[in-house]
Specification:
Blueprint (H helix, E strand, L loop, with lengths): L1 H28 L9 E5 L5 E3 L15 E2 L3 H6 L2 H16 L5 E5 L2 H7 L11 H4 L5 E3 L12 H9 L4 E4 L3 E6 L2 H22 L10 H7 L7 H16 L12
Parallel strand pairs: 5-6
Antiparallel strand pairs: 1-2, 1-4, 2-3, 4-7, 6-7
Helix pairs in contact: 1-7, 1-9, 3-6, 4-7, 7-9
Length: about 250
């Protein structure tokens, strides 16, 4: 029984590494990565967290690249760049335990939107509809107040939402699994791109009406099945025919 339990744990970790690593490569393909910066993380259980390494471009991240953290002391020993990511992600997972997956990135259009005096995503486009009522905004740069409490400040600003638009600092996405969180990250950037391009015309963006939004969001966010379908299709594109995973995370 003990051997079977160990094998199950090992398979779960391999499973998680496979999908989280693929998310990095897909993000690099989609133009959502910035070299070796930003971080994706996934909790395996209440203690073990997989997170992005600090020394590898996202396009090159494989399952073995991901770091399984062993606590604060271990994070400090891995250097400042790694510690920054750890300090952001760990408090989010602790405060929102149902959010197994946390994605932090600086997508160009979402980050551009965060720089504006009024950074709200307007529910006007097809892609923006899915984020109605799901986005939080912080009104100051999250590093103000010191690095040690950065993750706690971010978690407080996020509250019970799924998305946080960070003032001048990109986005945080939380979700139950990698595929669903990644679909939110990708479609959020598409929604922000449409809004920034529309605003660049100098004309007013016309939002959908309250009744229209209520009708369009009545069924809730995109299904987990759609998230897995999209993720699998992107793996095929990025990794080729052999990129299809036989492993499935709950998304």
């Amino acid at each position: 029984m003990a051997i079977a339990r160990v094998q199950s744990v090992d398979r779960e970790e391999a499973h998680a590494r496979d999908v989280l690593a693929a998310a990095h490569r897909i993000a690099a393909h989609d133009g959502l990565a910035e070299g070796t910066w930003n971080h994706f993380s996934l909790m395996l259980d209440s203690e073990r967290m997989l997170i992005t390494p600090a020394d590898r471009h996202w396009a090159l991240i494989d399952p073995d690249s991901l770091v399984l953290t062993a606590g604060d002391d271990d994070a400090r020993e891995r250097g400042l760049q790694f510690l920054i990511g750890y300090r952001i992600h760990r408090p989010l997972h602790e405060i929102r335990p149902a959010a197994r997956c946390v994605l932090h990135a600086h997508p160009p259009y979402a980050t551009a939107l965060s720089l504006l005096d009024e950074p709200e995503l307007i529910v006007a486009s097809q892609m923006s509809v899915g984020f109605a009522g799901r986005i939080a905004y912080n009104d100051r740069y999250d590093l103000i107040g010191g690095a040690a409490g950065q993750g706690e400040r971010i978690a407080t600003a996020l509250g019970d939402k799924d998305v946080l638009l960070l003032r001048g600092h990109g986005v945080m996405i939380v979700g139950a699994g990698v595929e669903s969180a990644y679909l939110d990250l990708y479609t959020l950037e598409l929604a922000c791109r449409s809004q920034i391009l529309a605003m660049s015309s100098g004309r007013e963006v016309r939002p959908l009406g309250v009744i229209e939004v209520a009708e369009l969001t009545a069924s809730g966010p995109d299904s987990d099945d759609e998230a897995r379908r999209h993720f699998a299709a992107m793996r095929m594109l990025v990794d080729g025919p052999r990129g299809r995973s036989t492993l499935n995370l709950t998304g």
